[in-house]
């Protein structure tokens, strides 16, 4: 990995639920705390949580970095990410958004449109989690072409003999296993998620 590259997550959710926090924490583990920055963090308690995972900024990435140095990951981009795209870039920006299926285009609306005339790329037609996107970008930055990274669209987690959870996103695979937070898997397989997600859905519906 190019040591000067900063992976930036532009925080765009109204609050940090457990699901989002687990993805953020896993992203920090993937690239290392010193290479990760969270921007647009306005809430003091969110700042406290995220400062353990990387550098935190109240300002948006659009206010901090010059467009010439920025590479944005956006599902609506016309071209897929390549190792060559990182030449001359010091910042990779990912939207801190819990994905919708189908996507609502929030990365484009809230980040890309505000970064005029910068480089914007996608990760193919698949829709990844935040930490999955960070992992994919890290490998491409290290020289691995996107099409050489094994992925699987859709992931099923077995709860018990009678129940399972299906995640409709794409996940990179490493050594035959999906790149996903172990803490998130444990959470998804617990009964805590139902109440937590109901609360978050109500909050997001008001946006």
3D architecture notes:
This protein is an alpha/beta fold and 207 residues long. It has a domain at 6-145: Alpha/beta knot. Helices cover 30% and strands 22% of the residues. The chain has seven helices and nine strands. The protein has helices at 18-31, 44-50, 61-64, 106-110, 130-141, 182-188, 192-205; strands at 6-11, 36-39, 55-56, 70-73, 91-96, 119-121, 151-158, 164-174, 177-178. It has a six-stranded parallel beta sheet, covered by helices on one side. Strand 2 (36-39), helix 2 (44-50) and strand 3 (55-56) form a beta-alpha-beta unit. Helix 1 runs parallel beside helix 5 (130-141). The longest helix is centred in the N-terminal third of the chain and has 14 residues, at 18-31. The chain is globular and about 50 Å long. The mean pLDDT is 88.
Layout of secondary structure:
Blueprint: E1 6-11, H1 18-31, E2 36-39, H2 44-50, E3 55-56, H3 61-64, E4 70-73, E5 91-96, H4 106-110, E6 119-121, H5 130-141, E7 151-158, E8 164-174, E9 177-178, H6 182-188, H7 192-205
Helix pairs in contact: 1-5, 1-6
Question: Strand share of the residues?
Answer: 15-25%
- For the record, the CATH class of the domain at 6-145 is Alpha Beta
How many β-strand stretches? Answer: 9
Label the CATH architecture of the domain at 6-145. 3-Layer(aba) Sandwich
Structural class: alpha/beta
Instruction: Report the total helices.
Output: 7
Rg from alpha-carbon coordinates? 16 Å
N-C termini distance: 37 Å
Q: What composes the largest sheet?
A: 6 strands, parallel
Topology pattern, helix = H, strand = E: EHEHEHEEHEHEEEHH
**Uncertain runs:** none
CATH topology of the domain at 6-145: Alpha/beta knot
Q: Rough shape?
A: globular
Strand order of the largest sheet: 3-2-1-5-4-6
What share of residues is helical? 25-40%
Mean pLDDT comes to: 88
């Amino acid at each position: 990995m190019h040591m000067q590259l900063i992976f930036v997550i532009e925080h765009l959710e109204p609050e940090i639920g457990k699901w989002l926090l687990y993805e953020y924490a896993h992203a920090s583990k993937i690239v290392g705390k010193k290479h990760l920055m969270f921007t647009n963090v306005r809430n003091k308690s969110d700042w406290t949580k995220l400062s353990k995972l990387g550098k935190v900024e109240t300002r948006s990435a659009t206010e901090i970095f010059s467009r010439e140095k920025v590479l944005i990951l956006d599902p609506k981009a016309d071209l897929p990410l390549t190792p060559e795209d990182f030449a001359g870039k010091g910042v990779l920006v990912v939207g801190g958004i819990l994905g919708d299926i189908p996507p609502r285009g929030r990365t484009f609306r809230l980040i890309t449109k505000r970064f005029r005339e910068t480089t914007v790329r996608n990760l193919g037609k698949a829709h990844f989690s935040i930490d999955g996107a960070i992992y994919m970008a890290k490998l491409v930055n290290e020289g691995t072409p996107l099409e050489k990274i094994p992925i699987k669209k859709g992931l099923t987690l077995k709860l018990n003999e009678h129940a399972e959870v299906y995640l409709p996103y794409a996940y990179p695979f490493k050594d035959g296993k999906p790149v996903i937070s172990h803490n998130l898997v444990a959470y998804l397989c617990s009964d805590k998620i139902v109440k937590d997600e109901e609360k978050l859905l109500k909050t997001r519906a008001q946006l």
